[in-house]
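About this split. The held-out portion is used to measure sequence recovery: a designer receives only the structure tokens and must propose an amino acid at every position. Recovery is the fraction of positions where the proposal matches the reference. Here is one held-out target exactly as it appears in the evaluation file.
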């Protein structure tokens, strides 16, 4: 009896489920009655024109766009924008879709006005070398599709075509101009850098400073670094090479929006963009990494920020670009103090021949002896005080420890404004190099806990107090 009851209950549940499913099917609206259409129809794309890009003769639009193919250079030209830096990728894009015209789907029925095709609709005419032509009348946007498309009338039929294939036939002139402001510094195929910056000059209103690559250095301050800074007031110093490299890199490959253009640079209204009296100018001279005879130069003028925008103009160009202030490149935001190296005096030990420490009371001279490979064998040390001489011989490791203490010159800031207050030095350090060049670091008392430090008498800094005492304590320890 229990078994029969279970079977009846199971059959009853199945019957109820079948009734529910049938009711759902009867009540569900059909696609036609719901008014919904598929957002992406089944692909029925048809190629309406298939030509080689070289067969395109010209493209003209009722909106004013006109381009013609240049067979000699194998590229599209826009005569109205001659002399302007055009975006080659856009030109290639236009040419590709002028040579191959594709309809994603043909519309079987409907009035032209239903698809936004009227007398005022843009008309694009593409002429080919065989005398044929494709005439496209562009209508309204197609609703309910994931890929932006438009209705287009061609050869008496209406097609849906991707907007990306059509947009540059009727775009604003500025959209054909390259958005690249300065040249790239890399090979797109290999990713390798093409140039190394040789000279970089900044002019911020009435303040200017330059950064040069150390190639033919004559000043000892330039001896041990890749770059050196030149400042008009005489504060020349060895900057932080990493900062220089990053700032230099930020000047290459800049991009922005086209703000204005003209047929010639003289016709640009630079003052309208705050570029009449330049707020900031950066001039770059770079040479090829593998070929120093390959030289690249450019000069960028920049405006002060205005309503969140910064305007840029490369001299010799007839385009003004804009960038967002929040995206200002590193070179625009950099100040002279940003280039200060952490350590102001770091001689290259491998090139040092002699080291002299002079105080008002005594002088310490360290003469390095090297083997045939240039490695330090030992160091002859001589202390002269009160007419008496005291000598010692230092091992390589002993002198290296002393030299490490010497190089602990972490600056606390520039003392250029206080250079007239610098008194007689309490310690003068002279490093003589094996090629005859030399450089000096002179330390003087300062009103604060710090000490004044002058590098070669041309740049003035603050060093932490106690630097001289620690260095001299280490050096005097070798004399017993």
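Reference sequence for scoring:
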């Amino acid at each position: 009896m229990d078994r029969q009851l279970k079977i009846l209950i199971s059959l009853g549940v199945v019957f109820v489920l079948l009734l529910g499913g049938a009711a759902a099917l009867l009540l569900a609206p059909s696609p036609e009655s719901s008014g919904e259409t598929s957002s992406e129809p089944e692909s029925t794309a048809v190629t309406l024109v298939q030509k080689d890009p070289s067969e395109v003769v010209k493209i003209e639009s009722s909106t004013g766009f006109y381009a013609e193919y240049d067979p000699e250079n194998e590229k599209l030209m826009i005569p109205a924008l001659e002399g302007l830096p055009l975006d080659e990728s856009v030109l290639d894009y236009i040419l590709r879709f002028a040579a191959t015209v594709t309809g994603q789907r043909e519309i079987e029925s409907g009035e032209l006005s239903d698809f936004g095709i009227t007398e005022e609709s843009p008309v694009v005419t593409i002429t080919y070398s065989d005398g044929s032509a494709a005439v496209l009348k562009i209508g309204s946007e197609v609703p309910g599709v994931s890929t932006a498309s438009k209705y287009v009338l061609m050869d008496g039929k209406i097609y849906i075509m991707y907007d990306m294939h059509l947009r540059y036939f009727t775009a604003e002139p500025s959209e054909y101009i390259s958005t690249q402001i300065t040249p790239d510094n890399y090979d797109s195929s290999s990713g390798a850098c093409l140039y190394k910056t040789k000279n970089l000059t900044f002019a911020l209103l009435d303040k200017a400073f330059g950064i040069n690559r150390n190639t033919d250095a004559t000043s000892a301050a330039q001896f041990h670094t890749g770059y050196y800074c030149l400042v008009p007031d005489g504060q020349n110093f060895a900057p932080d090479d990493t900062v220089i490299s990053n700032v230099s890199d930020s000047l290459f490959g800049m991009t922005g929006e086209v703000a204005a253009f003209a047929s010639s640079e003289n016709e640009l209204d630079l003052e309208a963009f705050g570029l009449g009296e330049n707020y900031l100018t950066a001039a770059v001279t770079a040479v090829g990494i593998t070929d120093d005879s390959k030289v690249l130069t450019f000069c960028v003028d920049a405006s002060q920020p205005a309503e969140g925008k910064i305007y840029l103009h490369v001299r010799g160009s007839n385009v003004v670009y804009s960038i967002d202030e929040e995206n200002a490149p590193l070179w625009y935001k950099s100040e002279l103090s940003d280039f200060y190296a952490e350590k102001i005096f770091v001689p290259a030990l491998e090139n040092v021949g002699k080291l002299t420490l002079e105080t008002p009371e005594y002088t310490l001279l360290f003469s390095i002896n090297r083997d045939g490979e240039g490695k330090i064998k030992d160091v002859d040390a001589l202390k002269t005080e009160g007419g008496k001489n005291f000598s010692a011989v230092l091992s390589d490791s002993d002198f290296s420890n002393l030299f490490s203490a010497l190089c602990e010159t972490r600056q606390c800031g520039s003392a250029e404004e206080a250079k007239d207050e610098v008194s007689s030095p309490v310690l003068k350090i002279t490093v003589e190099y094996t090629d005859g060049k030399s450089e000096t670091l002179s330390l003087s008392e300062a009103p604060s806990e710090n000490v004044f430090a002058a590098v070669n008498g041309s740049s003035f800094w603050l060093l932490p107090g106690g630097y001289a005492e620690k260095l001299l304590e280490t050096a005097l320890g070798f004399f017993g």
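Annotator remark: The radius of gyration is 38 Å.
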